[in-house]
Every structure is written in C-alpha cells, then in structure tokens.
Amino acid sequence: MSIPVESSPTKPCKCLRTKNPYGTTPHNSESWLPGVDTSSSYWCLRTMGPAGPDDHFVHLSRCTASRACYEQTEQ
C-alpha cells in the first residue's frame, strides 16, 4: 500500500519533527515550513523513528490528514 504524496500540505501532523534552522515543532509551522530544505531529516514523535505508527516513512509531504495516524495541530 502506498501513501499519496501531497505537493504542499497546509498543516503537517503534530507528531512530525525535523531538524532544521527554523524550528522543530508544527506549532510554528508558518515560520519553518517555507524554509524546509530537501535535505532535512524527519522523525515521528509517536515512534521516535523515521516511520510512523502505520509503518510508512515520515516526511513533510507525507504526514498529512490522508494517513490514519495523523494528529491535527491545535489552533
């Protein structure tokens, strides 16, 4: 089963984390999303690894509401 990849998600899963100079939490996504580099590494807070609870890799373009494990960021 493949996970669809979205080109520009509006809000990533709140469990998605990345190491980059713009921050590490989706709570400030407006400031770090535009600056995400293609070489950024991602991990899931629920599994603490490169794959989510659904055993699919995590990435800004993949951790969207289309996944069963997606958790919406509080507004």
Structure write-up:
It is built from one helix and two strands, in the order E-H-E. With 75 residues, the chain is largely without helices or strands. It has one domain (1-75). It has a two-stranded antiparallel ribbon. The longest helix has 4 residues, at 29-32.
Helix-strand blueprint:
Elements: E1 16-19, H1 29-32, E2 41-44
Antiparallel strand pairs: 1-2
Overall body shape: globular
The strand count comes to 2
Structural class: little secondary structure
Query: How many whole angstroms does the radius of gyration measure?
Result: 11 Å
Précis, in short:
With 75 residues, this protein is mostly loops. It has one domain (1-75). The protein contains 1 helix and 2 strands.
Descriptive tags:
two-stranded antiparallel sheet, 75 residues, little secondary structure
